[in-house]
Amino acid sequence: MSKDILSTIQSKMNTFSKGQKLIAKYILECYDKAAFMTASKLGKTVNVSESTVVRFAAELGYDGYPSMQKALQEMIRNKLTTIQRIEVSNDRIGNQDILAQVMQSDIEKIRLTMEETDRIAFNQAVSAIVNARRIYILGVRSASTISNFISFYFNLIFDNVVTVYTNTVSEIYEQIMRVGPEDVFIGVSFPRYSTRTVKAMHFAKKQGTRLIAITDSQESPLARMSDVTLIAKSDMASFVDSLVAPLSLVNALIVAVGRMTNQNLAETFGRLEQVWAEYDVYETPEEEAEVFGADEAISPEK
Q1: Residue 246 CB-half CA count within 13 A
Q2: Are 15 and 78 spatial neighbours (Cβ–Cβ below 8 Å)?
Q3: The pTM is what?
Q4: Three-state secondary structure call for residue 110
């Protein structure tokens, strides 16, 4: 459905049955909570049967309750304030085991990401990155975790990586002012989407740069302007952004890029191992023995 679901509900209010009006009123007033309720829980909340909730979804033109629920979630994902996210999360988890609930949700997001990842788009992204003159990478706020992870490994593989930092708005454009058609711009953002990332990608697009978006949906503002979009399912765990699935997708991207540059990669890491050893970058069993004593030194297997 192209029309906003809340507008659709409002416009059809006079056609609903008594029970459906109860559902409609609750969704209009508490859409942030309704979007994450099962049909059964929504029905109990407004004192109607689960079948009434299912028929309500069909009345709106959806092929089932899950489709209506997905439409609600997509609509609100970028609108929830931090306070609303905490309230929704508390409702979803309730008195259940927080550790189990959060980790199970992360497992499900990885599964969905693996099933829904477009392999053609993934391969196009790998090829574009390997053949780029320069590789620009931008992610802000919690998404900077992902962009910095990509930058760390790409800087080991390539000598043409530009990690865009965002201390001030002007600094972004100063760093990307030379972006051009032979470059690749990787933008990373998840709800709530960063205005700075969207605007920087728009600037790069105007320069003819090939854009790669790593985001959660084809409805994301990054996806709508990008040449290649890699979708990774994200979720909210209270005020925390769950980025487990995006990080897993990025792991695969880095490994695929590394395999395509395999010979150069082996030479690079050969030199790095020499540097790391010469300048004591990593602890050795001998150094551990000096600190902890021979009996307490950690064995190499650990």
Answers
A1: 27
A2: no
A3: 0.70
A4: helix
